[in-house]
Each structure stands twice: as C-alpha cells, then as structure tokens.
C-alpha cells in the first residue's frame, strides 16, 4: 500500500469538490461538492490513521461524518425554504441581504 | 502756571452717610421703569409713558437729595465709594461693584436726570401718534439707567457696563423706526463704530489689570503717578480711543450724523446732551492717568482741536437741520475734549461747558423737533424760512439757545466757552507754540460756530417763506411747489421743556460761574489749578472772540436773510461740496478700512474654503473612493467568498511549506 496514492486521491477528490463549490450555482450541487471535500478529508484521516496505527484519525472521520449529516439536514432545510419562497435553487439568487 | 497745578488726591471715604446711601436708587428707578415697560407689553401702552416720566423724575429727585447730602459735607470729604456687592472675587482679581458719589458724578446725575426728565415730558407729546410710544419710553429709561451706571461707577469695569448699556440704548433708539432700512443701517453704523472705540476701553482695562492689579478708580489713580510713562501713555491713548468712539471725535466721528435717523428727542438727549459727552467724562475722570502721560494729553488736545474744526466746517454746509446740529454737537464736544486735554486748568471748564451745552443743545434739538412737528417732518432748511411768525415760542426758545451756543454774554455758553478759549491760550509746560496753535483753533472755531449756527437760525426762522402754503397765490412771495405745509406751534407739553431749557441756556452759565461756584464745587475731583497766564491778555481774547462771533453772525445774516436762499442747494465750491459729504468721512472709512477689510475677509474665506477645507474634503474624498473600490469586492456571491478563502488557505499552506523546508 503506497501512502502517496491515497493522499493524491484525497487531493483530487478535494479539488473536484472545491471546484464544484466555486463554479456551480445550483445549491444541491454545491452541497454535493462540500460533501466531496469532507470525504476527501476523511480519506486522508483514515489513511494516516492506518499508516500510524493510531485510531484517533478514524475517530475524527466519524465525527466529520456526523457533523456532515447534521449540516446536510440544516442545509437542505434552508435550500428547501429558499426554493419555496423564491422558486429557485440558485445560490446567486439568494441575495436579499445585498444592497 | 500749569506747573504749579497739582491734583489733590482727594480722600475717598468708604464710610457712607445716610443721604448718600440712596445712590443705588437713582439707577434702580429708571431700570425698574424700563423693565416694567418692556415686560408688561401692550398692557402698559396707555400709561407706560407716564411711568417712564415718573421713573426719570424720581431719579432726579434722588439726585437732588445726593446733591444736598454732598453739600452738607466739607469740600474735602465730598467723595464716597459705596460698596454694593462682590462682583468678581477670583483670587488676585477681586472686583467689587460700587458707586462713586462725588461732585463730578453728582453733576452728571443731575444733568442726565434733569434734561432726561424734560425730554421724557417732551416725548409724551412728540411721540403721541406713534404706536410704539411705550417701547420708546422703555428704551429712554434704559438709557437713563445705563448712563447713570456709567457716571456713578467706582471702577472702570462697572463704567464699562454702563458704557455698553448706553451704546445699546443708543442703537435701539437710532433704529427706533427700524422698518425703514436707512434707520436700521444708521443704527448699525453707530453700534459698530462705537465698538471700535470700546476695544480701546477693553485694552485699557487689561493694561490696568496687568500693571496696577485692579480696575477701580482708587487703585488705578493711586498707582498711575508712579507708573512708567510708557504704560500711562498706552492706557491714556486707549481711553482716548474709547472717548473718540463714544463722543464722535475724529477719527471715529462718522456715526453721529447718521444717528440723527432716530426720533428727535433721542437726538436731543443721547446724541447731544448726555451720551456723547461720556468721552469727556472718561477723560476727566481718568485725570491722574493723563497727568502722568503728557504725550497722551497732547493727543487729546489735538483730537479735540481737529474735531472742533471738522464739525464746524461740516455744520456750515449741511442743509438738514438735525445734521447741522449734529455737526455742531461734534464741534462743541471737540471744545470739551480740548479743554480736558489741557490738564487741571481745563477739566472744570470741560465739564462746565458740557453742562451748559447739555442745556442749550438739548433745547436747540427740541426746537428743531418742534419745527419738524409743525412742518410735517421736513428737515431740509432750504424748505423753511420765515417760521418765526408761526412758531413764536419755538422761535424765542431756539433764539436763546442760539445766543447761548454762540457765546454771547451773558448767556450760558459765554461763561464756559470763553474760559476754554482762554485756557487754550495758556502755555503748557512753557511751550508757547501749543498756546498759539490750540488757542487760535479754539478762537477761530468760535467764529465758525457763530456762522453756522446763525445760518441755521436764519434759514429756519427769518427770511422769506420757502415752503408751499397752499394758498396758490402767484404774487411771488414763495414757492408754490412741493407739499403744502401748515406750520403751527407745538402743544404745551412740548414747549414747556423748551422754555425750561431756554431759561437754563440763559441763566445757568452765569449762575454757576458766579464766584467760580462750579469750579470750586468740582475742585475735590479735578484738583485745584493755579490760574494760568494766557499769551494774550484775557480781555483781548474776549474782545477777539466777540468780534469773530459778530462777524460770523453778520456773514450769515447777509447770505441767508438779506439774500434769497435758493430752494435747491447751489453747486458750491469744492470745500462746500466736501463739507456736504462730511469731508468725505465715509469715503475715507470705506476706502481705508472697509474695503481692505472686505478684501482680507474674502481672501481668508477663499483660503479657508480652498486650502483648509480642500485638504480635509480631499482626504475624505480619497477615503470614499477607496471604500467604493473595496465595496466592489463584496459581490454577494457565496462562491467568490469561498474562492477568497481557498486562495487564502493555499497562500498560507505554501508559505508554511516554504518556511518549513
């Protein structure tokens, strides 16, 4: 098992996630990008935990999953609320506080 | 000889006997009168003028009590400082408000309240048809109160309060008919020119505080003789500046002519008899300061001499009866200032002339008011003429005042003015040139006075009618153009004060000069003066004066009674034209002071706007521009913030890695 492969994969996943967040306007897709970034980080945690034989990294990966689940719940609720009032899921249209 | 003259340092007692203790009442009565009239408003319209008159008469009665109280004391003991209250107790600066009751202040109290009461009485009738008669009396009372504070104060600071008070009353009364722009402008002009003089008094106060540690008369007068000449000269010149402003002396004389915009009783009381003489009072009261500053005294004499000629020349050309009288006032006060600058031999005569002048000039002004009353407020003397037949009382009282101001014996003016001329001919410090120069000016001034006053008198009362009597007759006895006039004598309320003042013009001078009564009375204040020897014998001076006076009368008679007076002023020679325009006093003031001042203020305003404001608004503008630019970075798009965060994170990681390696 080569450590580098996992880290590189993690980096690629993170980059894809980040790019998604930055470039896409649909809030659902942006959320998916965020999930991707979180899981890229999880992958890195788990990899290093295995390499070092230290369970701490794996524990943190669980924490991240839990927080991500909670975040999705709140985030999706907000997205649904916005969609209901503004008939759109585009992040650019959620601009009521601007100006 | 003047060298022999010395100022008696009169013992000023602070232990006040009972009749003198009434002094505050003399101020309080008119002050309360003014307050009631101003606060009660329209409710007091019906009886307000009688209250004003009562307050003034009450003050006069108290003044007489003070006089009797003083006469009951020994001459040497006739000076009291009555402590009223601690005014400014501030460490080393400890000023208390107090009244100085001595022959000089009581003389003024009597003059102000007596002439003031007569003019109050006159105004009851004169202002009868004015809606604002109550306001007029409130201001008159305010003036009387302020003038009494001025003359009764025992410190320069309290004197300054009265000084400002009379300035305020003068402003309010000149601009009494403020709805006419001309009057409001005249009031403002008087106020501002007085303010220039007031700066002199303020600076003098500061100099006294800095050098003598006090501003009360006792302290200043005790320390002035020992102070350095530089300090006393500076204080003296500053006091003279103040006197010039208040007394309309050159170079601050320009306001007095315009001040005639006020009602005529005001011109009589404030701008002839009392307020404008406050400068003379200040100089005489500050005698110890001037005694210690011979240079300042010389300047005082020069100012007086210049003004007396200035006023006389202007008076000879004015066709407005009130403005001619105003120029005459200026000239006569020039005599007083000149006398006050001569030292102890002149002080008493300055005050003497002030008192007699107060009577005959007030009488002349009231007479002019009576003429205006009968002629529907006409003031142009070229539209008068032959009025003696229509206003007999006015004619006689005015004539007596005219003889008094001319200095014809035995009328009042003779006793005071002749003494001033004689005193001017006495060499000061052995300098004969001064005697010749100032004596000649005073002498010639008397001749010009005779000319312009006779001119005024003849143009008004003698000669042919130059107003339209409405008869439509074409017999060539008078013009048939212009508004129709029906000259008539004024009511008794107006003529009575004129008669009283005329009696004063006739008899007061001789009465007070009898046995040097007045001079002896003032001696505790002005000091005893050795009789000086004039460079010409006294009898010759009297003869010369009378010859000049007669010449003046004769010239005026020939020009304004024998010859017909044109209704429209002839072009005249250069001097006449200059005198009509007050010897270009306004042009001089405007070009020397007003225009440069305006240029400076405009430049400063411009500099303030462009440089100072420019710097700060420029800074604010730059910051605003920067903020605007920064604002554009705030797009409101989540992803742009996310990109910023990402970018920042990458920078941090790169830096951390670079530092670690």
Report on the structure:
Chain A is mainly alpha-helical and 99 residues long. Helix content of chain A is 79%, strand content 0%. Chain A contains three helices and no strands. In chain A, helix 1 (3-23) packs antiparallel against helix 2 (27-52) and helix 2 (27-52) runs antiparallel to helix 3 (56-86). Chain A is elongated. The mean pLDDT of chain A is 90. Chain B has 661 residues and is mainly alpha-helical. Chain B is built from 24 helices and two strands. Chain B has helices spanning 23-40, 48-71, 103-126, 133-152, 156-174, 181-212, 217-223, 229-247, 255-258, 264-273, 278-285, 287-291, 294-315, 321-341, 344-374, 392-406, 412-424, 432-461, 492-513, 517-526, 538-562, 574-580, 585-633, 638-660, and strands at 80-90, 93-101. In chain B, a hairpin with a 2-residue loop joins strand 1 and strand 2. Chain B is globular. Classes of the chains: A mainly alpha (99), B mainly alpha (661). Chains A and B meet through helix 1 of A and helix 24 of B. Chain B: Its main location: membrane. Chain B: GO terms for molecular function: NADH dehydrogenase (ubiquinone) activity; NADH dehydrogenase activity. Chain B: Residues 87-137 form the NADH-Ubiquinone oxidoreductase (complex I) chain 5 N-terminal domain.
Rg from alpha-carbon coordinates of chain B: 31 Å
The count of β-strands of chain A is 0
Strand fraction of chain A equals under 5%
What is the strand content of chain B? under 5%
Structure summary, number of beta strands of chain B: 2
The largest sheet of chain B is:
2 strands, antiparallel
Specify the CATH class of chain A.
Answer: Mainly Alpha
Low-confidence stretches of chain A: none
Q: What is the percent of helical residues of chain B? A: 55-70%
Assembly type of the chains comes to heterodimer
């Amino acid at each position: 098992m080569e450590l580098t492969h996992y880290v590189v994969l993690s980096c690629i996943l993170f980059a894809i996630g980040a790019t998604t967040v930055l470039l896409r306007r649909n809030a659902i897709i942006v959320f998916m990008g965020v999930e991707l970034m979180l899981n890229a980080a999880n992958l890195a945690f788990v990899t290093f935990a295995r390499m070092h034989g230290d369970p701490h990294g794996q524990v943190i990966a669980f924490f991240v999953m839990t927080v991500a689940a909670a975040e999705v719940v709140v985030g999706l609720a907000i997205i649904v609320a916005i969609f209901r009032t503004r008939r759109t899921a585009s992040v650019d249209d959620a601009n009521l506080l601007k100006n | 000889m003047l060298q022999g003259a010395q100022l008696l340092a009169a013992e000023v007692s602070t232990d006040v006997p009972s009749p003198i203790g009434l002094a505050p009442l003399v101020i309080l009565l008119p002050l309360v009168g003014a307050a009631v009239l101003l606060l009660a408003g329209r409710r007091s319209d019906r009886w307000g003028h009688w209250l004003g008159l009562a307050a003034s008469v009450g003050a006069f009665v108290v003044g007489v009590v003070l006089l009797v109280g003083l006469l009951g004391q020994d001459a040497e003991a006739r000076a009291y400082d009555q402590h009223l209250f601690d005014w400014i107790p501030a460490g080393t600066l400890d000023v208390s408000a107090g009244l100085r009751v001595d022959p000089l202040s009581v003389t003024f109290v009597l003059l102000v309240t007596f002439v003031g009461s007569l003019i109050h009485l006159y105004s009851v009738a004169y202002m009868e048809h004015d809606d604002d008669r109550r306001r007029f009396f409130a201001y008159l009372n305010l003036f009387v109160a302020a003038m009494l504070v001025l003359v009764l104060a025992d410190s320069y600071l309290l004197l300054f309060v009265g000084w400002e008070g009379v300035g305020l009353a003068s402003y309010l009364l000149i601009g009494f008919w403020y709805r006419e722009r001309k009057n409001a402008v005249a009031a403002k002009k008087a106020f501002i020119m007085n303010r220039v003089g007031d700066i002199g008094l303020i600076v003098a106060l500061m100099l006294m505080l800095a050098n003598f540690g006090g501003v009360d008369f006792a302290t200043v007068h005790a320390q002035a003789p020992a102070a350095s000449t530089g300090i006393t000269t500076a204080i003296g010149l500053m006091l003279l500046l103040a006197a010039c402003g208040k007394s309309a002396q050159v170079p601050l004389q320009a306001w007095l002519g315009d001040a005639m915009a006020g009602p005529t009783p005001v011109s009589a009381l404030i701008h002839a008899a009392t307020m404008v003489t406050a400068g003379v009072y200040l100089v005489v009261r500050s005698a110890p300061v001037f005694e210690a500053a011979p240079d300042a005294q010389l300047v005082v004499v020069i100012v007086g001499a210049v003004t007396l000629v200035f006023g006389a020349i202007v008076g000879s050309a004015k066709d407005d009866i009130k403005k001619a009288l105003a120029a005459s006032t200026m000239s006569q006060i020039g005599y007083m200032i000149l006398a006050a600058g001569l030292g102890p031999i002149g002080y008493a005569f300055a005050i003497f002339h002030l008192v007699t002048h107060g009577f005959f000039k007030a009488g002349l002004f009231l007479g002019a008011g009576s003429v205006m009353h009968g002629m529907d407020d006409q003031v142009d003397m070229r539209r008068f003429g032959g009025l003696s037949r229509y206003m007999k009382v006015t004619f006689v009282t005015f004539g007596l005042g005219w003889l008094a101001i001319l200095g014809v014996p035995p009328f009042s003016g003779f006793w005071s003015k002749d003494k001033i001329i004689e005193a001017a001919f006495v060499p000061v410090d052995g300098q004969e040139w001064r005697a010749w120069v100032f004596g000649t000016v005073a002498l010639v001034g008397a001749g010009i006075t005779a000319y312009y006053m006779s001119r005024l008198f003849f143009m008004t009362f003698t000669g042919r009618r130059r107003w339209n009597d409405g008869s439509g007759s074409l017999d060539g006895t008078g013009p048939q153009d212009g508004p129709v006039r029906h000259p008539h004598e004024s009511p008794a309320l107006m003529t009575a004060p004129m008669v009283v003042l005329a009696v004063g013009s006739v008899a007061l001078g001789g009465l007070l000069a009898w046995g040097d009564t007045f001079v002896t009375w003032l001696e505790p204040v002005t000091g005893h003066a050795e009789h000086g020897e004039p460079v010409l014998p006294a009898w010759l001076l009297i003869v010369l004066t009378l010859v000049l006076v007669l010449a003046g009368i004769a010239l005026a008679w020939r020009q304004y009674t024998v010859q017909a007076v044109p209704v429209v002023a002839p072009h005249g020679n250069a001097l006449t034209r200059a005198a009509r325009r007050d010897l270009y006093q306004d042009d001089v003031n405007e070009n020397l002071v007003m225009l440069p001042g305006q240029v400076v203020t405009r430049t400063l305003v411009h500099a303030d706007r462009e440089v100072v404001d420019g710097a700060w608004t420029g800074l604010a503008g730059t910051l605003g521009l920067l903020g605007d630019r920064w604002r554009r970075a705030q797009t409101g798009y989540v992803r742009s913030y996310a990109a910023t965060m990402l970018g920042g994170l990458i920078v941090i990681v790169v830096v951390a890695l670079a530092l670690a390696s």
